[in-house]
Specification:
Blueprint (H helix, E strand, L loop, with lengths): L27 H21 L8 E7 L8 E7 L37 H21 L10 H28 L1 H13 L21 H23 L4 H38 L8 H6 L5 H16 L8 H8 L21 E8 L2 E8 L4 H26 L24 E2 L5 E2 L1 H11 L3 H10 L30 E2 L4
Antiparallel strand pairs: 1-2, 1-7, 3-4, 5-6
Helix pairs in contact: 1-3, 1-4, 2-3, 2-4, 3-4, 3-6, 5-6, 5-8, 5-10, 6-10
Bound molecules: benzoyl coenzyme A and fe (iii) ion (FE) (2 copies).
């Protein structure tokens, strides 16, 4: 990467140590703060980033501009030398606060004093998830089912690293000393650590195998999309611009998840057909073919969906109402919604647990905003599941994946204290214990999947449990050397 793009409209300045389009060269205080944070970030990346591949050359895209049509440039890069930068979508002339109590005011270029603490908290929670996911995925390179998949993993990882930079920039620029301390904290917490865990539940879970990775990028990165869409609506303009650019990267993460699971489905169906197996529940015979049976895929989906639902917080939340009222966090597609954007008297239907049953009740729309965003999320997930089912149907296998009830396997919100089946029936603890392994991956399932996780690093080859992709990255041919592996 060089500075030759510096004169293009919206281009990124690569002359500073930290590539950026926010004129850091003339913002001495922030540039210095970020340069001081940089070595700690690199230490974190070396010790908690992709294990065993820091010396390898990976065919990565790097942002060179914020023009949605041509922002990325591809090339082989050693990950520690990746140019993590600070990139904001262009400022929109005359942008307003579009919702909440301040609706109609000019969007803020500085943090409103009264909302400082709330905004800092949102930035820190968002920032915390990014390095957490890198930590969760750090062992996966070693069992990559192809160089193509390995490259996609590392692409996701470096971009999550950049998303951390995105939040750290906002903290350093707008929050002075507190921001600096929070930026340090983001490098200190660790996914799954007993003493210093990451902040949100799903980011302390293991990502033990590649099927989990695909499910995580489908379900959990999609929570990222929904949350970033809501923060992109923010009346605090620098946050809005930051999130808008992050969303352009996020699309690829969900692509990796959706096509990853899709390729597993295709391979399984193809192997079943070749072996003359019609019954998708003939699990032992299907597994003997070295592919992942569809019922096990369903269990993995159940797990990752329910963990991701927890990331939306409680269905009824005064935090969410405050975020909205203050103009900091909007709804999905806020400006496209046809209502008063203040929600002072509106209601929204919420699924609750009342008198021993699951019931829909109207709640004030303001406090129901987490529920609303979760509903939008579930719709988005369902679209992907429908596309997976088309693949199964096309292969002539009689099976359909589905999303479990939102009451299933929950640890946050209305259903945290109850046991429910995937179809939403309430269960006793004993009934749940008996059925658990039918609905969530059992240790046996985990062992089976682990047994398939052997590296496949020959150019153009794929592990036998997953189909090759339809097209390569950046239109490269099937046998492209996406990763040049060097020990380190
Ligand atoms: N785990 O009123 P409540 C991504 C806490 S993913 C642990 O129910 P609220 C990515 C909550 O903090 C997107 N704690 O919920 C994906 C609060 O604590 P305090 C990440 C939880 O506040 C893949 C208390 O419980 N971004 O980018 O309305 C790879 C009561 O909270 C959890 C964001 O989340 C949990 N699951 O909403 C890489 C956006 N849920 O304040 C990256 C920013 C809740 O009482 N965050 N709690 O100490 C938010 O908007 C909100 O904080 C939440 C929670 C939606 C997360
Ligand atoms: Fe991210
Ligand atoms: Fe992501």
């Amino acid at each position: 990467m060089n500075g030759s793009a510096a004169y293009v409209e919206g281009a990124v300045d690569y002359t500073t140590k930290i590539p950026n389009n926010v004129n850091l060269a003339e913002d001495g205080r922030v540039l210095k703060a970020l340069e001081q944070w940089h070595p700690g970030y690199i230490d974190w990346w070396m010790s908690m980033g992709p294990e065993g591949f820091q010396a390898s050359e990976v065919y990565l895209r790097t942002a060179v501009s914020i023009d949605p049509k041509g922002w990325a440039k591809f090339g082989h890069v050693k990950m520690p030398e990746y140019r993590w930068g600070v990139l904001l979508a262009p400022q929109e002339e005359g942008r307003l606060v579009n919702f909440g109590a301040h609706k109609g005011e000019k969007a803020w270029q500085e943090v409103p004093g009264e909302y400082r603490a709330m905004l800092r908290r949102l930035l820190v929670i968002q920032g915390d998830t990014e390095p957490a996911s890198v930590e969760q995925q750090r062992h996966l390179g070693k069992t990559a089912p192809s160089l193509y998949d390995m490259r996609n993993l590392f692409q996701v990882n470096v971009e999550e690293g950049r998303h951390l930079w995105a939040m750290v920039y906002l903290l350093q620029k707008y929050f002075g000393k507190d921001g600096r301390e929070e930026a340090e904290g983001l490098l200190e917490r660790r996914s799954g650590d007993v003493d210093k865990p990451r902040m949100l539940g799903a980011f302390n879970e293991a990502t033990p195998d590649w099927l989990s990775f695909y499910m995580f990028t489908f379900f959990t990165d999609r929570d990222g999309k929904m949350q970033l869409e809501s923060l992109a609506q923010s009346g605090f303009d620098p946050l809005s611009r930051t999130c808008r650019f992050m969303l352009t990267e996020e699309a690829h993460h969900m692509f990796v998840g959706e096509t990853g699971v899709g390729r597993v489905i295709e391979r399984t169906c193809e192997a079943m057909k070749a072996a003359g197996i019609e019954d998708p529940f003939d699990i032992a015979r299907i597994r003997a073919l070295g592919v992942i049976d569809l019922p096990t895929l369903q269990k993995k989906a159940n797990l990752h969906f329910s963990l991701s639902l927890d990331l939306f917080g409680s269905e009824v939340s005064t935090n969410a109402a405050n975020f909205f009222n203050s103009g900091l966090k909007g709804r999905f597609m806020e400006t496209k919604i046809d209502d008063d954007h203040r929600l002072t008297s509106a209601v929204y239907p919420v699924l609750k647990f009342i008198d021993g049953e699951i019931r829909m009740v109207d709640e004030p729309a303001l406090t129901a905003l987490n529920m609303r965003l979760r509903d939008d999320y579930v719709k988005d997930c369902q679209g992907g599941v429908n596309r997976w089912n088309k693949l199964i149907e096309k292969a002539g296998v009689r099976f359909a994946l589905s999303l479990p009830s939102v009451a299933f396997n929950r640890h946050i919100g209305e259903f945290a204290g109850v046991e429910a089946s995937p179809d939403g029936k309430l269960l006793t603890a004993a009934q749940w214990a008996k059925m658990r392994d039918q609905w969530l991956p059992s240790s046996g399932d985990g062992e089976f999947i682990a047994s398939l996780m052997t590296p496949c690093w020959e150019r153009g080859e794929y592990a036998r449990w997953v189909s090759p992709p339809k097209v390569g990255v950046d239109n490269k041919p099937g046998d492209f050397d996406y990763v040049r592996i060097h020990a380190g």
